[in-house]
Amino acid sequence: MPFPEYEPTTPNFLRAVCRQYSQQDLIVYEDQRLDYAELEQQSATLARGMLASGIGKGTQLGLLMPNNADFLVAWFAAARIGAVIVPINTFYQPRELAFVLTHADIEVLLCVDALLNNDYLQRLEQCVPALEAHDADSVGLYTPTLPCLRRIFVRGNASRGWCRPWQQLVDAADAVDTEILQAAESAVSAADALTIVYSSGSTADPKGAVHSHGAVIRHAFNLNHWRDIVPGDRLFSPMPFFWVGGLVFTLHCAMHAGASLIYEELFEPGETLKLLERERATLVTGWPHYGTALADHPSFAERDLSAIRGGNIYAILPGSARPHDPELRSNALGMTETCGPHSIDHMDVDLPETLRGSFGRALEGIAHKIIDPDSGEALPAGEMGEICVRGYNVMQRLYKVDRESTFDADGFYRTGDGGYLDENGFLFFKARLGELIKTKGANVTPREVEVVIDEQPEVQASYVVGLPHSEHGQDVAAAIVLNAGEALDGATLRGRLKAELAAYKVPVHYFFLDKDAIPFTDSGKVDKRRLVDSLTRLHDTA
Predict the structure, then answer these.
(1) What DSSP line would sit under 1-16, residue for residue?
(2) Helix/strand/coil (H, E, C) string of 173-203?
(3) Whole-Å CA distances, 178 to 45, 47, 51, 182, 183
(4) How far is the C-alpha of 429 from the C-alpha of 448, rounded, in Å?
(5) What's the pTM value of the predicted model, to 2 decimals?
(6) Measured between alpha carbons, how far is 248 from 13 in angstroms, rounded to an integer?
């Protein structure tokens, strides 16, 4: 399906979808509801207020808010006038928050006062103590820590002297008429930077990927060709908008399709089941532990979830929609730098056995190549190396990083992911290259060991890493979380694994831990660097 006949900018996209789906819910969040027409109207008002307040094309604007209606109004208000938006991780602690505010050169920050147990006004004062000496009524904020930051607008209780209430932006709209707003929107092009999205930064400081209006709008449209999402769908998702998966694969994809989004402040299985029933969710997405928690909740059998027809929370899908074998469902492989998935296939149909574990093929307009990570030489089909990506969806650049340091001479981005392409172009991802275990001259992919361990009836989850060894390079080690009430020891497990895996893949060390002892990043991924450090200490003290 060709892209609609408009230049892929946010102002054009917003007009098109809001006109077509005007009275339909766009988002439901707790007691907030916002339909498409209200988004267009409210974002226009806020955009005029921003223009009146000196915010416009090129302004670096930080957005520290949950997945609610206010986020959407602020996002589209800023995007339609050409500001460069930096969605900020609401999990950030003071050090992480200070890094992104500084690195992204944030000039204006829009934030909530608090969320759950997070007091963001206090957190901002912790990362920038000099704020307390400033008055919001002065010309602007000036601190050596954040030399670019001038104003902070707060949705909620703007109880500090250094911040201004969100309503001040809304009230300023009267000073700018619609004609000025339309002129500002006309100045936005598809090639203009729309957003800087920061990665989770589990092994280093976060990196900021700069994406254009055209990349975000076009890529979301193209991804929908591979998804079972239609007008009127009601999509439940926990994916935050400050990650590219929530911003592109969830929000913009849903809007292209005319779907509604259902969010909650906090996942609690009983309350989530009530929400899914009340809002008649049709598609449900989430992390694997969601399915177990929902299906095991005492109220699950009482809930009317008959509207659900698809998604990846398999445990609560109707029987006809559940995969016979999840390993025969395609995955999508993507990252912040590629605006979400760069390879994909239909995820609601079973694949042939030959494609077990595959991650689909490149979308039209995207190219893959596999290279030797050391020499950079291209590798033939079937040979594992580093996955490289080139295409319209790839970021314009990493913020504050030379382009020559980011892309090769042919414009490919080295992802740091290890995998291979088969002769038909299907991509098989194996591991992050830094996670590959090199033991006694052999390479071990952690995931292939984890799959076998996870099949054991006593095991809830396993995490395989390499521990340093003076002679072998690394030893394969497994951190294992058992199901409640189960018992298992290393010798027994090793005996089972020897029948399933090549000898060099069988772990040498076994650590049985509580789930709370496994370090995770704020994006829900295992922080394997910290896990290696933790297991090394346990091994050394044993």
Answers:
(1) -PPPSS---HHHHHHH
(2) HHHCCHHHHHHHHHCCCCCCEEEEEECCCCC
(3) 9, 10, 11, 6, 9
(4) 11
(5) 0.87
(6) 13
Contacts of 273 (CB under 8 A, 6+ apart): 294, 297, 299, 300, 303, 305
Q: Are 270 and 299 in contact (CB under 8 A)?
A: yes
- Read off the tokens for 429: 């991802």
Amino acid at site 415 = T
Contact (CB, 8 A) for 150 and 107: yes
Distance CA 195, CA 84 (A): 5
Calpha distance 334→31 (Å, rounded):
33
E-strand ranges in 383-498 read 385-391, 397-398, 413-421, 427-432, 437-439, 442-444, 459-469, 473-482
DSSP state of 243: S
Closest CA relative to residue 313, chosen from 296, 289, 337: 289
φ/ψ of 311, rounded to 5, equals: 130, -170
Q: What is the pLDDT along the chain (542 residues), one digit of tens a residue?
A: 688 899 999 999 999 999 999 999 999 998 899 999 999 999 999 999 999 999 999 999 999 999 999 999 999 999 999 999 999 999 888 888 999 999 999 999 999 999 998 999 999 999 888 888 887 666 688 888 899 999 999 999 999 999 999 999 999 999 999 999 999 999 999 999 999 999 865 445 789 999 999 999 999 999 999 999 999 999 999 999 999 999 999 999 999 999 999 999 999 999 999 999 999 999 999 877 788 899 999 999 999 999 999 999 999 999 888 888 888 888 899 999 999 999 999 888 888 999 998 999 999 999 999 999 989 999 999 999 999 999 999 999 999 999 999 999 999 999 999 999 999 999 999 887 878 888 877 778 888 899 899 999 999 999 999 998 887 789 999 999 999 999 999 999 999 998 888 788 999 999 999 999 999 876 677 888 899 999 999 998 87
Q: Report all structural domains of the chain as residue ranges with CATH numbers, in order of start.
A: 36-214 (3.40.50.12780), 219-328 (3.40.50.980), 341-434 (2.30.38.10), 442-541 (3.30.300.30)
Residues with Cβ within 8 Å of 498's Cβ and at least 6 positions away in sequence, in order, are 506
Asked if 35 and 72 touch (Cβ cutoff 8 Å), the reply is: no
* CA distances for 256 relative to 14, 23, 271, 318, 386, angstroms: 10, 15, 29, 26, 33
Whose CA is closest to 461, among 472, 453, 473? 453
**435, two tokens:** 């996670």
